[in-house]
């Protein structure tokens, strides 16, 4: 039973850390280079 509690606790810690990393990634600004590439792609698509 103690092993199950340790696994459960470990999974909870992993879940919390993954959520934290994901939320931090969502808050990051998109690099200007990517914005430029997206604009170029949109312009190319609109010409078709």
Automatic annotation (TrEMBL):
Residues 11-45 form the Anti-sigma factor NepR domain. Pfam families: NepR. It comes from Pseudotabrizicola alkalilacus. This is Transcriptional regulator. It comes from the Bacteria.
């Amino acid at each position: 039973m103690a092993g199950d509690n340790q696994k459960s606790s470990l999974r909870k810690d992993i879940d919390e850390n993954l959520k934290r990393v994901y939320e931090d990634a969502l808050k990051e600004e998109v690099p200007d280079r990517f914005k430029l590439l997206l604009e170029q792609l949109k312009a190319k698509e609109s010409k078709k």
